[in-house]
């Protein structure tokens, strides 16, 4: 009995390992292909081979040295700065809103929650023309101020994404608040001194998701930066490299650029995985 | 915002008053509008001439000082990423010529907006758009209709005389010229691998197809999801695309040519037919699997890199349907320079646009990048004549029609038609597909 | 029914019960929603009538300071010593009137027609330069009109609040009670009224970046703003419900396209959500299975694919899945096929549809894996023990215990995913661009187009802003109805207060 049980288990594990390996290969293959292409010495996008005959590090070097056509380092810095500022603002907004909805009770709370939930369901890019002209009215579409506009755009609607974070706050026992109130703490102090220190997972989750959005948005940024090529972010720049007139010369550099973008995000993700998971598990789902 | 609007309504009001009571409002609105003290009137008084159209304007009789703020005229210029260097050099030269002996300086701001994107970008926000921009002629109708293009008045007749008819016609509406012809090279023709096909082979699609089929080579034309090329067959047969009146739909005569549709259906389902962009063609030429391809002058450099001396270029081949033999036609394409009608420095912008599209600038563009000039003198130069792709394009131009008034419905109907004829599983008759195509062009 | 009752049912009963229950309750829930909306409208009107009544009764009962507050905001507070509050009210009023006179009135006055002066061009006598005289700009009139209306509504609410507070202050003074001092007011904002403090800035931002643009876009659906009516050269104006009737009953193809794309959007959302969900869970179970080593390695392997921005992977995939891309080269090198498979462009449309769903799995499964891992760990061990005693195999255990449990606790997550997939722009746009095109659909729409990508094409390619916004509103209605109904009828929403 025991023997057959352990045998069955071994077989089962073998099957699982096989499936995991196959899936792992399928999942990692495109990433490997991306990395291989970034080292390809030929520049075109179409090849009759999978593994390039010749490897080079040139694509990376040229990405940072040949900057008159595509100023990748500048775009990278732009994106980095925008991402940091907008991520701080977004995180603040999200935490403020979700704490309010989770912990404070006031008259129009339910109504506000329902409104915020459905507001997020209108296709975002539909509003971009209006957003552009509102920003223009307050002078934020000048070449020198476009980055401020982008920060505002990325962080502006963040408050509507309170849902997961509210779910997390809901799981923190209310007795903590009550005890603190008895000790004479104001709600302000409870927020900063009691709730926030206990919310590391959800803060990490919010920071991560809002940090990533400037790296991946290519629609709003194209509306706002328009012809200001120096103000591009990485996403729109990389997308530009794949346009018809450039792809044959820039495909491999696109791959190199994409790899470089992915490195910091991957590192962040791997380090913060634990918090990310516990944040989203506790917040998105309530058992 | 408010003050601008006030000024505008004042101008308008004074114009109406002037128009109603004085008959000719020329002098009356001097007080209110910048137009009264504009460079043109000063220019013409300097030379003592009375009519605007007969005077030649150059740097010497052009004064743009009323457009300068603190002695600086700021101009924003758009060009494609690849053209930035040319643009910068030409703008600097322009500034040198037009600043000489004047109290103002030019300052340029360069924006990266390629010819294909100009219309969309300018429509997004004309205030923030360039004063001078390059665009492809397919956008002309939309730009004109939306009122984004300023009329060309300065040296108009000289410009018309200097450039080829097609390019001028592509930007003329009701006898008014709306932009400056820049290139006459935005059309397509046949590239082929001389080591595979002979000059006789490339005379007809039939001989190309049969030779390719025997040898297992591919032949390319980007017909799927691309009405620009697809239309070439119908145009060649003599079908007309009636210019759009609403910027949305077109009447087309394609319905008269079911034989062409049938031919296309067989053509795109051919075993060695290749559809795709220039990069694919370049790769195909490089690895020797491709015998010929249809593309334009923009791809010449890349293809030359792939084939070297074996690269041949010629007009498009003929094709024989069940009814007749036709020469494959094409759309004639041009690149142009426009002046933003909402520019605050319209005078300077017009001068710059004229300079950028002048004979010398076109010659420089050809030298640098091989762009096919629209200027007749440059076209006649030996260097241009010796350029094989341009020669092929010139040969094809006899069978091309200007692309005016082709609206969006045409392109999407063409895409849908191409998908339908490519699908071997599609059970509809060609006539049905063709009818749906024609109906689709008319549908908004 | 509590969870214990639920677990005591056999798996099929449980599953059926849940699904049947949802559909049985659906009409009731939809009914409830409408009832709620109806009740909301009635109570809204009642609220207004009461408000107006109160407004006048306060006025008649108020003393001179209170009455003066009806014209000059904050007077009552200032006169009775609440300087901070009073001046805040007063300056709000000043700011509002300055705004209206300098900016708002102008736009509001043209709001009914959206402008009537067309842009005008002329060439001055003897000049070689054409002058453009800008006329009215319908878009600015609409946008700033909306801005002004929203500011006015906010101001009006503050004004009513001011009259209430004026009267309340009066009553407090009359009854000899102590007034809230400025210091107390600030203290309360950090304690009793902390929600006001916390919500102010996020609300302002949401107003500016979501609500005003949204109202603007919604109103566009009632205008004729298209390529023929583009400001600044042209004017556009109100057309009522024309666009809606056009989509529903208009030229055969337009409405047909809408309903066909709606159908595919829903099919897509169902597949994209549930396939991801189930496979992601299976992956999580496999990684977390007892006896599997290198758990962190496997997890990281899949997490890497989340970390690469998805527009990059999608662009890469579209290149790889291209007719002549790497996948086809690979398949042919391996001798699996001898012709190119049109993963993204097959005219029949079925292969591209499957491709986008599969690629979406590639993107979505690691994410689901990450999220469900934690919950899977929390499934009470005794549930599995009992299954093991019954001799249930892994598949049956999954179907009868894991899946129902997970569905039970992750309903909110599934709904957000479902709505997210209805609006999933990137996958379709970057992979197939909506193609392959077909003659059956209206102007440019293709077989894999979702409503949301069609909408993008309509704004970006054909400048049919009015039609796009009409469809946007319809998507919005579908999504919000769906989520309001499900959210309000699931356990988690009802039990929210348990934690509080």
Give a written overview of the molecule.
- The complex is a heterotrimer of chains A (287), B (444) and C (500).
- Chain A is an all-alpha fold and 287 residues long.
- Helices cover 71% and strands 0% of the residues of chain A.
- Chain A has 2 domains: 2-58; 60-284, MetI-like fold, CATH 1.10.3720.
- Chain A has helices spanning 2-38, 58-65, 72-103, 109-119, 128-137, 146-156, 163-171, 174-182, 187-195, 200-216, 220-225, 234-241, 247-284.
- Chain B is α/β, with parallel strands linked by helices and 444 residues long.
- Helices cover 42% and strands 16% of the residues of chain B.
- The longest helix of chain B has 21 residues, at 2-22.
- By secondary structure, chain C is mostly helical.
- In chain C, 71% of the residues lie in helices and 1% in strands.
- Chain C has a two-stranded antiparallel sheet with strand order 1-2.
- Chain C starts with a helix and ends in a 6-residue tail after the last helix.
- The relative contact order of chain C is 0.08.
- At the B-C interface, helix 1, helix 2, helix 13, helix 18 and helix 19 of B face helix 5, strand 1 and strand 2 of C.
Structure at a glance:
The complex is a heterotrimer of chains A (287), B (444) and C (500). With 287 residues, chain A is mainly alpha-helical.
């Amino acid at each position: 009995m025991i023997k057959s049980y352990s045998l069955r288990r071994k077989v089962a594990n073998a099957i699982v390992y096989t499936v995991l390996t196959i899936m792992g290969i399928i999942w990692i293959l495109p990433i490997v292909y991306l990395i291989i292409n970034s080292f390809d010495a030929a520049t075109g996008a179409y090849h009759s081979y999978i593994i390039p005959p010749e490897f080079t590090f040139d694509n990376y070097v040229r990405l940072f040295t040949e900057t008159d056509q595509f100023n990748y380092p500048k775009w990278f810095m732009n994106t980095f700065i925008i991402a940091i500022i907008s991520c701080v603002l977004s995180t603040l907004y999200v935490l403020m809103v979700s704490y309010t909805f989770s912990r404070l009770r006031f008259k129009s709370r339910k109504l506000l929650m329902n409104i915020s939930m459905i507001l997020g369901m209108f296709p975002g890019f539909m509003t971009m023309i209006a957003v552009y002209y509102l920003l223009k009215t307050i002078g934020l579409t000048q070449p020198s101020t476009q980055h401020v506009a982008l920060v505002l755009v990325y962080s502006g609607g963040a408050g509507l994404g309170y849902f997961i974070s509210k779910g997390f706050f809901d799981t923190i026992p209310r007795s903590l608040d009550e005890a603190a109130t008895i000790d004479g703490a104001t709600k302000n102090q409870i927020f900063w001194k009691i709730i926030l220190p206990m919310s590391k997972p959800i803060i990490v989750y919010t920071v991560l998701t809002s940090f990533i959005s400037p790296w991946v948005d290519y629609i709003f940024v194209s509306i706002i930066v328009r012809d200001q090529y120096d103000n591009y972010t990485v996403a729109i720049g990389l997308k530009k490299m794949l346009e018809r007139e450039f792809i044959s010369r820039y495909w491999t550099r696109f791959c190199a650029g994409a790899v470089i973008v992915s490195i910091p995000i991957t590192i962040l993700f791997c380090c913060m995985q634990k918090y990310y998971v516990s944040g989203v598990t506790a917040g998105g789902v309530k058992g | 915002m408010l003050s601008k609007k006030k000024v505008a309504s004042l101008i308008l009001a004074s114009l109406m008053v002037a128009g109603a009571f004085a008959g000719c409002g020329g002098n009356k609105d001097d007080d209110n509008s910048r137009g009264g003290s504009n460079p043109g009137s000063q220019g013409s008084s300097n030379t003592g001439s009375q009519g605007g159209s007969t005077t030649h304007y150059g740097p010497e009789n052009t004064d743009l000082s009323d457009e300068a703020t603190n002695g600086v005229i700021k101009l924003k210029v758009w060009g494609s990423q690849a053209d930035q260097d040319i643009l910068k050099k030409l703008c600097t030269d322009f500034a040198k010529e037009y600043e000489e002996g004047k109290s103002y300086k030019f300052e340029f701001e360069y924006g990266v907006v390629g010819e294909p994107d100009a219309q969309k970008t300018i429509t997004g926000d004309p205030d923030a758009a360039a004063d001078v921009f390059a665009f492809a002629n397919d956008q002309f109708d939309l730009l004109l209709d939306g009122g984004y293009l300023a009329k060309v008045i300065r040296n108009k007749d000289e410009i018309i005389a200097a450039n080829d008819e097609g390019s001028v016609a592509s930007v003329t509406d009701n006898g008014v010229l709306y932009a400056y012809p820049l290139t006459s090279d935005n059309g397509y023709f046949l590239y082929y691998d001389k080591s595979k096909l002979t000059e006789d082979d490339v005379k007809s699609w039939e001989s190309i197809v049969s030779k390719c089929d025997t040898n297992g080579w591919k032949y390319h034309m980007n017909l799927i999801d691309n009405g620009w090329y697809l239309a070439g067959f119908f145009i060649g047969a003599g079908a007309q695309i009636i210019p759009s009146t609403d910027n949305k739909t077109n009447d087309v005569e394609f319905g008269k040519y079911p034989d062409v549709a049938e031919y296309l259906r067989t053509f795109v389902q051919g075993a060695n037919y290749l559809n795709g962009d220039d990069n694919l063609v370049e790769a195909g030429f490089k690895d020797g699997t491709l015998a010929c391809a249809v593309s334009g002058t923009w791809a010449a450099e890349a293809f030359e890199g792939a084939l070297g001396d074996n690269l041949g270029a010629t007009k498009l081949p003929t094709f024989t349907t069940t009814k007749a033999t036709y020469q494959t036609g094409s759309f004639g394409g041009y690149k142009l320079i426009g002046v933003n009608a909402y520019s605050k420095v319209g005078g300077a912008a017009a001068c710059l646009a004229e300079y950028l599209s002048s004979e010398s600038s076109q010659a420089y563009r050809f030298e640098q990048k091989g762009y096919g000039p629209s200027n007749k003198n440059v076209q006649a130069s030996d260097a241009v004549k010796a350029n094989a792709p341009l020669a092929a394009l010139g040969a094809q131009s006899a069978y091309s029609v200007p692309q005016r008034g082709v609206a969006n419905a045409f392109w999407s109907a063409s895409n849908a038609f191409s998908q339908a004829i490519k699908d071997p599983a599609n059970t509809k008759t060609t006539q049905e597909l063709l009818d749906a195509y024609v109906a689709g062009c008319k549908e908004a | 029914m509590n969870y214990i009752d639920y677990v005591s049912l056999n798996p099929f009963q449980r599953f059926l019960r849940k699904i049947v229950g949802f559909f049985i309750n659906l009409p009731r829930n939809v009914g409830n929603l409408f009832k709620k909306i109806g009740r909301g409208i009635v109570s809204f009107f009642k609220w207004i009538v009461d408000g107006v009544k109160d407004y006048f009764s306060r006025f008649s009962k108020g003393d001179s300071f209170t009455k003066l507050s009806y014209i000059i905001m904050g007077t009552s507070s200032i006169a009775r010593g609440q300087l901070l509050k009073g001046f805040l009210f007063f300056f709000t009023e000043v700011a509002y009137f300055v705004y209206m006179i300098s900016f708002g009135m102008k736009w509001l006055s043209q709001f009914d027609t959206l402008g009537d002066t067309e842009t005008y061009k002329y060439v001055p006598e003897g000049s070689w330069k054409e002058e453009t005289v800008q006329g009215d700009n319908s878009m600015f009139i609409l946008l700033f009109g909306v801005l002004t209306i929203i500011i006015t509504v906010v101001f009006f609410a503050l004004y009513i609040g001011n009259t209430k507070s004026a009267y309340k202050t009066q009553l407090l003074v009359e009854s000899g009670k102590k007034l809230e001092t400025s210091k107390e007011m600030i203290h309360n904002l950090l304690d009793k009224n902390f929600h006001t403090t916390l919500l102010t800035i996020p609300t302002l931002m949401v107003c500016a970046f979501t609500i005003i643009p949204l109202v603007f876009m919604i109103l566009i659906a009632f205008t004729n703003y298209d390529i023929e009516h583009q400001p600044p050269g042209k004017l556009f104006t109100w057309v009522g419900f024309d666009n809606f009737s056009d989509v529903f009953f208009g030229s055969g193809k337009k409405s047909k396209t809408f309903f066909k794309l709606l159908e595919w959007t829903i099919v897509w959302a169902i597949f994209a959500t549930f396939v991801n969900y189930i496979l992601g869970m299976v992956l999580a179970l496999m990684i977390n299975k007892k006896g599997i080593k290198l758990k962190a390695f496997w997890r990281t392997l899949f997490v890497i694919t989340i970390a690469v921005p998805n527009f990059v992977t999608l662009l890469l995939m579209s290149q790889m899945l291209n007719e002549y891309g790497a996948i086809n080269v690979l398949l042919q090198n391996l001798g699996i096929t001898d012709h190119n498979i049109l993963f993204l462009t097959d005219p029949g449309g079925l292969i591209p549809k499957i491709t986008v769903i599969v690629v979406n799995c590639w993107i979505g499964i690691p994410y689901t894996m990450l999220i469900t891992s934690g919950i899977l760990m929390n499934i009470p061990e005794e549930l599995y023990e009992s299954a093991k005693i019954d001799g249930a195999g892994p598949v049956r255990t999954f179907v009868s215990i894991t899946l129902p449990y997970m569905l039970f606790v992750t309903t909110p997550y599934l709904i957000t995913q479902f709505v997210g997939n209805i609006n999933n722009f990137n996958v379709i746009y970057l992979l197939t661009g909506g193609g392959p095109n077909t003659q059956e659909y209206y102007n440019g729409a293709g077989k894999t187009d979702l409503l949301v990508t069609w909408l993008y094409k309509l704004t970006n390619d054909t400048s049919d802003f009015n039609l796009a916004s009409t469809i946007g509103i319809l998507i919005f209605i579908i999504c919000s109805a769906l989520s309001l109904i499900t959210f309000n009828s699931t356990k988690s929403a009802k039990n929210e207060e348990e934690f509080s």
